């Protein structure tokens, strides 16, 4: 963390042994996200402990709003077969229901015989499971469990998610510099798409790791004659998540010094492309 400094490089820490489990809270505190490596972890820790610790780690990462990924032994069968086992599908289902942000395939895509099938099956299973999740209940659970009092920025971000549901908005638009505001919105797991528009290309790339975020890099040369908000609205329409006249909830954040996620405003507007 000290080596990275204030360069905005994101640090994802891998939990792969007993030492990582013992020191998890301190690791989480200085990390921007967590990867659970079940392959190496399973060598040092009993299998039943790995499953329980996975659930605990996912829950903690969700509560602090940091991305959590699961690596290794995801669809191992796809290394030499075209169909996953029911147990693998059940394992992925459980992780998605628990709140994991993503999976890291290794042998399935690095040396397996069916890398494309592995990705296709993973997408298919995750998409199906997510359609059954009650995101309103997830939002309320997060709101109940998060430590109080919460900061003003996080309060505005959580309110944006609540407001979008109550006014039946088509999407949430986040105008962000370093991505902090978008990550705060992502923490509260909106069922809607969250369009995060930024002028920083690195920020746009990094936001792909956060739940529900559809990042868009605003380039004044490409988006000529469009304000950053209009560019976000055009993008929302182009990917099919909103239509002209729909209500959209807009939040905006800015960087103060090196602090991310200083959310200052929230508003509800009809989407207009003019």
UniProtKB/TrEMBL annotation:
<keyword id="KW-0324">Glycolysis</keyword>
<keyword id="KW-0418">Kinase</keyword>
<dbReference type="GO" id="GO:0004743">
    <property type="term" value="F:pyruvate kinase activity"/>
</dbReference>
<dbReference type="InterPro" id="IPR015795">
    <property type="entry name" value="Pyrv_Knase_C"/>
</dbReference>
<dbReference type="InterPro" id="IPR040442">
    <property type="entry name" value="Pyrv_kinase-like_dom_sf"/>
</dbReference>
<dbReference type="InterPro" id="IPR001697">
    <property type="entry name" value="Pyr_Knase"/>
</dbReference>
<feature type="domain" description="Pyruvate kinase C-terminal">
    <location>
        <begin position="154"/>
        <end position="269"/>
    </location>
</feature>
<keyword id="KW-0547">Nucleotide-binding</keyword>
<comment type="pathway">
    <text>Carbohydrate degradation; glycolysis; pyruvate from D-glyceraldehyde 3-phosphate: step 5/5.</text>
</comment>
<dbReference type="InterPro" id="IPR015813">
    <property type="entry name" value="Pyrv/PenolPyrv_kinase-like_dom"/>
</dbReference>
<keyword id="KW-0460">Magnesium</keyword>
<dbReference type="GO" id="GO:0016301">
    <property type="term" value="F:kinase activity"/>
</dbReference>
<dbReference type="InterPro" id="IPR015793">
    <property type="entry name" value="Pyrv_Knase_brl"/>
</dbReference>
<keyword id="KW-0067">ATP-binding</keyword>
<protein>
    <recommendedName>
        <fullName>Pyruvate kinase</fullName>
        <ecNumber>2.7.1.40</ecNumber>
    </recommendedName>
</protein>
<keyword id="KW-0808">Transferase</keyword>
<dbReference type="GO" id="GO:0000287">
    <property type="term" value="F:magnesium ion binding"/>
</dbReference>
<dbReference type="InterPro" id="IPR018209">
    <property type="entry name" value="Pyrv_Knase_AS"/>
</dbReference>
<dbReference type="GO" id="GO:0030955">
    <property type="term" value="F:potassium ion binding"/>
</dbReference>
<comment type="similarity">
    <text>Belongs to the pyruvate kinase family.</text>
</comment>
<dbReference type="GO" id="GO:0005524">
    <property type="term" value="F:ATP binding"/>
</dbReference>
<dbReference type="Pfam" id="PF00224">
    <property type="entry name" value="PK"/>
</dbReference>
<dbReference type="InterPro" id="IPR036918">
    <property type="entry name" value="Pyrv_Knase_C_sf"/>
</dbReference>
<keyword id="KW-0670">Pyruvate</keyword>
<dbReference type="Pfam" id="PF02887">
    <property type="entry name" value="PK_C"/>
</dbReference>
<feature type="domain" description="Pyruvate kinase barrel">
    <location>
        <begin position="6"/>
        <end position="119"/>
    </location>
</feature>
<keyword id="KW-0479">Metal-binding</keyword>
């Amino acid at each position: 963390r000290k080596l990275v400094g204030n360069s905005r490089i994101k640090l994802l820490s891998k939990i792969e042994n007993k030492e990582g489990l013992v020191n998890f809270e301190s690791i989480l505190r200085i990390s921007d996200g967590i990867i659970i490596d079940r392959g190496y972890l399973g060598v040092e820790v009993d299998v039943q402990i790995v499953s329980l610790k996975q659930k605990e780690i996912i829950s903690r990462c969700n509560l602090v709003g940091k991305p959590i990924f699961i690596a290794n032994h995801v669809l191992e069968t796809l290394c030499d077969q075209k169909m996953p086992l029911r147990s693998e599908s059940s394992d992925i289902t459980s992780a998605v229901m628990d709140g994991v942000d993503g999976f890291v395939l290794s042998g399935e895509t690095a040396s397996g015989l069916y890398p494309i099938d592995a990705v296709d099956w993973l997408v298919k299973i995750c998409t199906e499971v997510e359609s059954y999740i009650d995101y309103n209940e997830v939002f309320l659970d997060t709101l109940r469990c998060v430590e109080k009092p919460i900061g003003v920025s996080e309060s505005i971000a959580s309110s944006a998610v609540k407001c979008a549901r109550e006014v039946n908005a088509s999407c949430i638009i986040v105008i962000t510099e370093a991505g902090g505001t978008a990550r705060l919105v992502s923490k509260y797991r909106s069922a809607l798409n969250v369009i995060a528009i930024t002028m920083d290309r690195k920020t746009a790339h990094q936001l792909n790791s956060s739940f529900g975020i559809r990042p868009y890099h605003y380039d004044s040369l490409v988006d000529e004659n469009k304000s950053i908000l209009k560019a976000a609205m055009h993008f929302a329409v182009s990917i099919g998540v909103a239509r002209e006249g729909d209500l959209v909830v807009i939040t905006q954040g800015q960087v103060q010094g090196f602090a991310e996620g200083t959310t200052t405003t929230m508003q509800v507007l009809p989407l207009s492309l003019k």
